């Protein structure tokens, strides 16, 4: 009970911090909504027009909300780069640390705000840091509760980890490349499986590079698209093809390694039991 109270207190404090950060935006010109003309300053206009308004940002749930959020943050980024970076990092770590789904939209937002390469580096670092925080939170507050809530899945993963202990790092990479079990569940169960935190850290950083690359590069492309014609241009199609090739190559190498070195009987795409061998 004590551990649950501590976790609730931590989640509440983090939520309150993120709420304040996302609600009280720094002063600036009024954000031009889609289809509106930008507000032009003149001698009779207030230079801090819109600064008295409090806008509450929220996590995007679809591509339209993602585009609107990216436009707003790009607008603020021109004068408040540090604020936008702090807000983005805080929101990303919040989701990762507390195992909240939806990192794909934040990865795409990273590409739209910071470009494909800076966005990829930022996404990889934040994914790894947030997953490590989740690992530490699970180890501190939730080990016994996770075992009680998911006894069968934890037992299955425990058995697979022990069978692949000699190639544990590559086994962890395989689980990151292929969705045998959700990433959030692997984060919260890793302390129970006695996976060293250093190995966990680097398996997350390396194993999620293809996924982060796809999302970030897609976000950077979406930020450059202004019409449906742009989606089907040769340049965009070639970029998407390159993304697919780069992302599939490391996965293919890991899968080839797994056929001869890893024991994966009993795992399927959702981490459930299967009474057959991996084909």
Topology:
Layout (H helix, E strand, L loop, with lengths): L1 H22 L39 H15 L3 H17 L5 H12 L1 H34 L1 H13 L4 H10 L5 H7 L7 H11 L1 H16 L3 H4 L2 H28 L18
Kindly describe this structure.
- By secondary structure, the protein is mainly alpha-helical.
- The protein has helices spanning 2-23, 63-77, 81-97, 103-114, 116-149, 151-163, 168-177, 183-189, 197-207, 209-224, 228-231, 234-261.
- The chain has one domain.
- Helix 2 packs antiparallel against helix 3, helix 4 (103-114) packs antiparallel against helix 5 and helix 5 packs across helix 10.
- Belongs to the TMEM41 family.
- Residues 100-219 form the VTT domain.
- Keywords: Membrane, Signal, Transmembrane, Transmembrane helix.
- This is T41AB protein.
Order of helices and strands: HHHHHHHHHHHH
Unreliable residue runs: 31-54, 269-279
How many domain units? 1
> What is the total tally of β strands?
0
Taking all Cα atoms into account, the compactness measure Rg is 22 Å
Helix coverage percent: 55-70%
End-to-end separation: 44 Å
Structure keywords:
12 helices, 0% strand, single chain, T41AB protein, mainly alpha, 279 residues
In short:
With 279 residues, the protein is mainly α.
């Amino acid at each position: 009970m004590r551990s649950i109270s501590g976790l609730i207190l931590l989640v509440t404090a983090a939520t309150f911090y993120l709420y304040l950060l996302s609600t009280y935006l720094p002063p600036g010109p009024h954000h031009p909504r889609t289809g509106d003309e930008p507000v032009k300053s003149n001698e009779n206009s207030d230079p801090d027009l819109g600064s008295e308004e409090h806008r509450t940002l929220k996590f995007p749930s679809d591509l339209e909300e993602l585009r609107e959020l990216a436009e707003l943050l790009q607008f603020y980024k021109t004068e408040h780069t540090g604020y936008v970076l702090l807000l983005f990092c805080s929101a990303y770590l919040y989701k990762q640390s507390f195992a909240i789904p939806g990192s794909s939209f934040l990865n795409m937002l990273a590409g739209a705000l910071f470009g494909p390469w800076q966005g990829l580096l930022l996404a990889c670092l934040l994914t790894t840091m947030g997953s490590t925080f989740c690992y530490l939170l699970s180890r501190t507050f939730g080990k016994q509760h996770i075992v009680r809530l998911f006894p069968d899945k934890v037992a299955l993963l425990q058995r697979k980890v022990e069978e692949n202990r000699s190639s544990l790092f590559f086994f962890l990479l395989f689980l990151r490349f292929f969705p045998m079990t959700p990433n959030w569940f692997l984060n919260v169960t890793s302390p129970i499986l006695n996976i060293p935190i250093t190995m966990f850290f680097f398996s997350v950083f390396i194993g999620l590079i293809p996924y982060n690359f796809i999302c970030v590069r897609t976000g950077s492309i979406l930020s450059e698209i202004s019409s449906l014609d742009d989606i089907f241009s040769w340049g965009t199609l070639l970029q998407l093809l390159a993304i697919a090739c780069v992302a599939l190559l490391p996965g293919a190498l890991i899968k080839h390694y797994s056929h001869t070195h890893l024991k994966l009987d009993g795992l399927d795409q959702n981490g459930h039991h299967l009474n057959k061998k991996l084909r």
